């Protein structure tokens, strides 16, 4: 059956899986329709400004309070702030993709933390992970009290069933799961690999457009939110919680995805990155890469993000008298990049789909030598970058690699050498 969605970003939605399940005039009437239990899920403080306030009313088969005590379980390779288990090196870092596990591994067990910053207890910073899985979650569910989660599949699609409904997410799309919302991940292709960002700070939102006006970048109408769907299952299942950086688990005797109807604006969503309206120069030189920002998590200081999600999609290059790939640069903001498919325009080789790189605060980087030499002599006719999709999570905080990341066999230990060989050209 084809999955249905609602369109919009930040809207207040109303949806019911069974006709008449949604109260019309009051959130918590004395006797709710069809005997359901009203429950509110708040994504922000009650008194957050109206434009930033997130909450959703759920109408459930059972209240969420009906659960046993949690027990601590192992974290595996999942880590959280303050990310101080290893000394953070200043040099540039790059990894090849992690392999799909040989043993049965679901989305939770397949999370591998590569780097992060800040602390979930302080509601600032982020954690970045790979996920590599080959088994669907059937009687296992997950929710994250530390952060909202952005998922970027790279190999294989994801079937995400949350409390608010179902979403199918393919490579080239992203999904964002709100903080505190229960969900499970199925693997329609039998295996999946990709990237996950835990955003500990302010929730992701669309960036302001300033002089671009109303039409550029990502449009609200292209974000899709699920319609109500629920599981009415009476069987044992495990519910895993991430809380202050650690994993905890409890056993339910029913599915927690028992929301028959809901209304509000604290909801999961998906977005097809091909719908991003790219802005670029049509004369000369380079605009800042901020023109490729899809979503941003502000930090409290204007223009300085806790986390920006930036993409480098297919587009035309037409700048005249210009070195067209990204020039050499040193930024105050730190960059963590991934590649969904194709080749990245600034690297001739070595940056692989499913791989990752970190260029931290004020560390020089840019094109490697082959890219520099090719772009310096290329004929500057209009050129279309095709079949490539890279992305970046950029943050005001330094990305601190985990012990696993620094010891992983996938770490390219000679990555700095891609900038060897530049000769003095001064005349």
CATH topology of the largest domain: Jelly Rolls
Distance between the termini: 68 Å
Q: What structural class do the secondary elements suggest?
A: mainly beta
Q: What's the level 1 CATH class of the largest domain?
A: Mainly Beta
Question: Mean pLDDT, rounded to whole units?
Answer: 96
Total DSSP E strands: 28
Give a written overview of the molecule.
The structure is a single chain. The chain is mainly β and 427 residues long. The protein is 3% helix and 37% strand. The strands form 6 sheets. It has a 9-stranded antiparallel beta sheet. Strands 6-25-24-27-22-21 form a 6-stranded antiparallel beta sheet, with no helix packed on it. It has a 4-stranded antiparallel beta sheet with strand order 2-19-4-3, with no helix packed on it. The longest helix has 9 residues. The protein is globular, with a radius of gyration of 22 Å.
Key phrases:
single chain; 427 residues; mainly beta; Jelly Rolls; 2 domains; 9-stranded antiparallel β-sheet; 6-stranded antiparallel β-sheet; 2 helices; 3% helix; globular
């Amino acid at each position: 059956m084809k999955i249905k969605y609602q369109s919009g970003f930040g809207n207040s939605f109303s949806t019911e899986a069974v006709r008449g399940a949604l109260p019309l005039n009051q959130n918590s009437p004395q006797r709710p329709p069809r005997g359901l239990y009203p429950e509110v899920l708040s994504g922000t403080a009650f008194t957050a400004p109206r434009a930033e306030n997130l909450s959703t009313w759920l109408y459930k088969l059972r209240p969420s309070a009906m659960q046993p005590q949690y027990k601590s379980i192992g974290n595996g390779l999942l880590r959280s702030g303050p990310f101080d288990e290893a000394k953070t090196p200043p040099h540039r870092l790059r990894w090849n993709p992690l392999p799909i596990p040989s043993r049965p591994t679901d989305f939770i067990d397949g999370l591998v933390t590569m780097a992060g910053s800040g602390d979930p207890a302080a509601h600032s910073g982020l954690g970045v992970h790979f996920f590599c899985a080959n088994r669907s979650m059937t009687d296992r569910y997950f929710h994250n009290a530390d952060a909202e989660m952005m998922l970027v599949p790279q190999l294989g699609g994801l079937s995400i069933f949350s409390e608010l409904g179902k979403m199918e997410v393919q490579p080239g799309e992203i999904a964002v799961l709100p903080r505190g919302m229960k969900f499970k991940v199925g693997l329609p292709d039998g295996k999946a690999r990709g990237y996950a960002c835990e955003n500990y700070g302010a929730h992701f939102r669309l960036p302001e457009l300033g002089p671009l006006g109303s039409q550029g970048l990502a449009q609200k109408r292209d974000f899709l939110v699920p319609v109500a769907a629920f599981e009415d299952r009476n069987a044992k299942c495990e519910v895993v919680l991430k809380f202050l950086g650690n994993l905890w688990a409890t056993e339910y005797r029913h599915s927690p995805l028992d929301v028959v109807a809901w209304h509000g604006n604290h909801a999961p969503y998906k977005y097809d990155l091909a719908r991003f309206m790219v802005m670029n120069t049509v004369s000369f030189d380079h605009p800042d890469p901020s023109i490729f920002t899809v979503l941003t998590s502000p930090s409290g200081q204007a223009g300085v993000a806790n986390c920006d999600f930036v993409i480098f999609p297919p587009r035309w290059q037409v700048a005249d008298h210009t070195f067209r790939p990204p020039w050499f640069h040193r930024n105050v903001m730190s960059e963590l990049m991934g590649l969904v498919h194709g080749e990245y325009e600034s690297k001739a080789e070595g940056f692989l789909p499913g791989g990752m790189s970190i260029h931290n605060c004020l560390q020089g980087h840019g094109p490697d030598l082959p890219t520099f030499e090719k772009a310096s002599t290329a004929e500057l006719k209009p050129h279309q970058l095709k079949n490539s999709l890279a992305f970046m999570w950029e943050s005001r905080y330094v990305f601190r690699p985990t012990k696993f990341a620094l010891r992983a066999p996938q770490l390219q230990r000679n990555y700095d050498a891609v900038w060897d060989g530049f000769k003095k050209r001064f005349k």
